[in-house]
Amino acid sequence: MRLGLIGLGRIGAFHAETLTALGVDLVVHDPMPGLAASFADARDSAGEVLAAGIDGLVIAAATDAHPQLILAGVEAGLPVFCEKPVARGAAEAAEVLRRCTDAGAQVRVQIGYNRRFDAGIVRARAAVQSGELGRLHTVRSTTMDPAPPPDTYLAGSGGIFRDCSVHDFDTIRFVTGREVVEVYATGHAEGFFAEIGDASTTAAVLTLDDGTLAVVSNTRYNGRGYDVRLELHGSADSIAAGLDGRLPMRSAEPGVTFPDQAPHHFFMDRFIDAYRAELSAFIDLVAGRIESPCTVADAVEAGWIAEACTLSLHEHRPVKLSEAGLKVEP
Asked: Which of 111, 184, 306, 319 can pair with 161 through a Cys bridge, CB separation 3.0 to 4.6 Å?
């Protein structure tokens, strides 16, 4: 299989290594001089990659390039994998969805929400689907970074809900199979975050369409490590993902030694297996064995939740996803 890869930064380079290990031949491009120098088949532009006889396209470029590259791949008749988000804003992402739908390409575009491939989260989803938890009443989803990304990245990220919490929002939809109907969000800003109108620590309560409550907690300053957990509580049982020996938390209980390993420090060490499974799924998508495991429509829905939380944070009020002017149908 021969795939195009556009973008060779941190995540793009990791994807290149993973795809090569999976036996894929790569045609690559990155606008930064030198990043593609070590690859056997490097091209001078994205257009050259698309014209190189590839079987599918992997997009790991900067966010602003995502809409154009997704649509270029779709117009070329290629299966496309694109790192989240689809676009900087949910309205623009909805337009990408409309154009993909018009082209009949929805099932051939996969958006990179890697947590859908994490073994613990997949197991938690199965517990919901089997009914073993009984009636689900509470979900808790946590993403805590050990330190903020660079200021230059943060200034263009769109804010913590669009950049970080959106992973939790997608996970909640994926695991519960329900839609979010209302959100209430609050937060606190430290240092540079206050300067750019962002928040460094947030909490959001999401009401799902069956009445289940989901609590999402995020911060950019979790000094002990990279903490991603999901808890599901039902009338019959409870289950959690992320409670392994590398959990970045200490127990205050006497005699308790769990967790007993070095804490997760970075998203790549926490989700390395999930990233590999995600790209293996894309290979299956390219080969025609499956349909997209995370569609543009899925990503757009997570984006609207992020938009609603951002509005709630700034206006200090609950926000319904159905509010006029918030959600634009594709």
From this structure: 306
Q: DSSP letter for 64, please.
A: G
Closest by Cα among 140, 150, 147 to 171: 140
Per residue in 164-182, pLDDT (tens digit) is 999 999 999 999 999 999 9
The type of residue at 135 is R
Question: What are the φ/ψ torsions at residue 29 (nearest 5 degrees)?
Answer: -155, 140
End-to-end CA gap in the chain: 33
CA distances from 214 to 38, 75, 258 (A): 45, 38, 26
- In this structure, the chain runs to a length of 330
Whole-angstrom Cα distance, residue 58 to residue 80?
6
Domains of the chain: 2-115+278-293 (3.40.50.720), 118-264+301-320 (3.30.360.10)
Confidence (pTM): 0.94
Q: What percent of the chain has pLDDT over 90?
A: 86
- Please give the pLDDT value at position 37: 84
Instruction: Tell me which DSSP letter residue 85 carries.
Output: P
Q: Is 280 left (phi over 0), alpha (psi -120 to 50) or beta?
A: alpha
Q: What one-character-per-residue DSSP string does 231-296 give? A: EEEESS-EEEES-STT-S----STT---S-SPPP-SHHHHSHHHHHHHHHHHHHHHTTSS--SS-H
What SS3 class is residue 219?
strand
**Cα Rg of the chain, angstroms:** 20
Average pLDDT estimate for 45-74: 96
Q: Is the pLDDT score of 25 beyond 70?
A: yes
Residues 73 and 6: their CA atoms lie apart, in Å, by 11
Q: What is the pLDDT of residue 104?
A: 86
Q: Lowest-pLDDT range, 60-74, 89-103, 313-327?
A: 313-327
